[in-house]
Amino acid sequence: MRIKELIKEKGLTVADVAAKxxxxxxxxxxxxxxxxxxxMLNRIATVLDVPVSSLFESETNLYGVVVFKGKTYxxxxxxxxxxxxxxxxxxxxxxSI
Length: 97
Hints:
By secondary structure, this protein is mainly alpha-helical. The chain folds into 2 domains: about 5-55, 434 Repressor (Amino-terminal Domain) (Orthogonal Bundle); about 60-95, no CATH class. About 50% of the residues lie in helices and about 10% in strands. α2 (about 15-20) crosses α3 (about 25-30). The longest helix has 13 residues, at about 80-90.
């Protein structure tokens, strides 16, 4: 699921979304991690103003592996790619898989 990604794209936090839904953050976190119901998914989608299907779909279908200076980096989202490129351009690439 890409709920966390959508929350970030909307400029919100998990706590923000939980408050708008009228639930506690741990309940929303469980839903984000896959322990959820159809009702909870509908509520999340409503707060984020997206169709329920977008909670599951990847917008880019991006997946790859970058090997740089002997380290392997998994790139499976726009955010992961942007993070790697930022680290690469600053010369501080330290995270690897």
